[in-house]
Design brief:
Layout (H helix, E strand, L loop, with lengths): L8 H7 L21 E5 L2 E4 H13 L7 H23 L6 H19 L2 H8 L3 H25 L7 H9 L8 E2 L2 E9 L5 H19 L4 H8 L5 H4 L2 E6 L5 H9 L9 E3 L2 E11 L2 E9 L5 H19 L5 H8 L3 H4 L15 E2 L5 H7 L11 E4 L5 E12 L2 E2 L6 H24 L5 E3 L11
């Protein structure tokens, strides 16, 4: 039994279905959309088209097309997801609207990269990207709530090294997964800094918008027109409630000095420049909306940053400082700097990353490099589309191989942890299914889902 494809259906629920390609419509063989309701969980419904789409995804992952039991398990997965949503509503488990907007923005960006351009998406679906984004927002939010509910249920699950070794020992050797080429790649990222004149220009622009709002124009309308925050067109700049310590320190400090309804003067954070309105305070939580303008850097700004990184590169090559120490001290990328600059494998948290998981730009860069070498400073665009400069360190390359606990401990540990989480979710389902109203179409009673 391969530990990447455990048969336990609750592992599939927790770690697969949330990433379904939600923009695809399921169709029957005649090309018509199937939309019969086949299950209800409290106020949530499952359509025949939902099952068709989930089953299609199951097949795309190598599932058995002739297995009726597999189709029943896919339906059970969907029912458990709806049960998670229903229980999240009962238990008041939510996700901030700002996080939903950020996730939506990321998914739309990925979709544009996959299809080729915004114009191609709009032509294919016959609607603007903004209309399409609004249409799928509820699906994204539901998926995020499901994930948060799963994390709440399994938060106390851990595995010991002894349990990891036992899990590995119980896998037949001929069933161990085969891993493709893996690499260790690190980066040190520096964001350019702006001149005082450029900063003053942005502040003046924001002060002008602030004056318009104080004179009576609607904050949300101004945010939709001018804010560069992802999702501002939908949210009007409102990012919802956050607790202390969750937002950029400069943003939070400014917001907490305001009175409800008061609008700040421009404040600078790592994301750019903001004007902030405090909407409400509730104990340790506060609700704000803002207008963000992100900096645009000149070639001089980029040149200055490249020169700085080139000096860091020279120190590393001359063994005056290790790459890991330089990343921890100088890198502006929070996700990699705390890991010595290295990219992490998505689920296991290890620093050996499969080459097919790498950003294409990074893959094509290291493909021309020798192991152990460091690039000259490279200008690139970050996920938020802002410009930055980085150096890449190609530390190691691991050839394709069968899973080995000495090489792939982090992956095996994650598989063992997922198995324990799936068992906890299975137990939770049995305990929780009687707490909500669930009804199943008679055509699917033979699946024995509720028995």
């Amino acid at each position: 039994m391969k530990f990447t494809k455990l048969k336990n259906k609750f592992l599939i629920i927790a770690f697969t279905l949330i990433s379904l390609p939600f923009w695809t419509n399921a169709q029957n063989e005649g090309g018509e959309i199937v939309d019969k309701i086949i299950a209800k969980v409290d106020n949530y419904i499952i359509l025949e088209s939902d099952l068709a789409l989930a089953y299609k995804d199951y097949l795309s992952r190598g599932g058995n097309a002739s297995s009726q039991q597999a189709r029943c398990e896919v339906l059970e997965n969907l029912i458990v997801n709806k049960l998670l949503l229903a229980k999240a509503e009962i238990d008041s488990v939510t996700v901030p609207e700002a996080q939903v907007d950020a996730q939506l923005e990321n998914r739309m960006r990925m979709m544009v990269q996959q299809i080729g351009s915004e114009e191609k998406i709009e032509e294919y679906y016959g609607k603007s990207l903004e209309e399409f984004s609004i249409e799928i927002r509820d699906d994204v939010k539901e998926q995020m709530i499901i994930g948060e509910m799963q994390r709440t249920i399994t938060a106390d699950i851990e595995v010991t090294p002894r349990q990891v070794k036992k899990f590995y020992a119980n896998i037949p050797k001929d069933s161990l997964p085969f891993y493709s080429t893996q690499v260790q790649v690190g980066q040190i990222v520096k964001k350019p800094t702006m001149s005082k004149e450029a900063k003053d220009n942005i502040k003046a622009r924001l002060n002008g918008l602030r004056e318009r709002i104080l004179e009576g124009e609607d904050f949300s309308d101004i945010a939709r027109l001018y804010s560069q925050e992802p999702g501002a067109k939908q949210s009007g700049g409102n990012i919802g409630f956050f607790e202390r310590g969750q937002l950029a320190p400069e943003y939070e400090a400014t917001a907490l000095r305001l009175k409800p309804g008061e609008i700040s003067k421009p404040v600078e954070t790592d994301f750019g420049f903001h004007i902030i309105e405090l909407l409400e305070r509730r104990g340790n939580e506060f609700n704000t909306r803002h207008i963000l303008i992100m900096p645009k850097f000149t070639q001089k700004d980029l040149d200055r940053t490249e020169n700085f990184l080139d000096s860091i590169r020279t120190l590393i090559i001359n063994d005056s400082i290790t790459f890991e120490a330089a990343a921890a001290e100088h890198s502006d990328d929070m996700q990699t700097s705390s890991n010595g600059g290295y990219f992490m494998e998505g689920e296991s948290g290890g620093t050996r990353v499969s080459v097919d998981e790498l950003d294409p730009n990074i893959f094509f860069t290291i493909d021309t490099m020798q192991v152990g070498s460091i690039t000259k400073p490279l200008t690139f665009r970050q996920p938020d589309r802002s410009q930055a400069v980085r150096i890449l360190y190609y530390k190691d390359r691991i050839k394709p191989h069968r899973a080995d606990i000495n090489i792939d401990y982090q992956k095996i540990k994650m598989a063992a942890l997922n198995k324990k989480k799936s068992e906890k979710l299975a137990k939770w389902f049995e305990e929780s299914k009687d707490e909500v109203f669930i009804v199943l179409d008679e055509n699917y009673q033979n699946c024995q889902i509720l028995n």
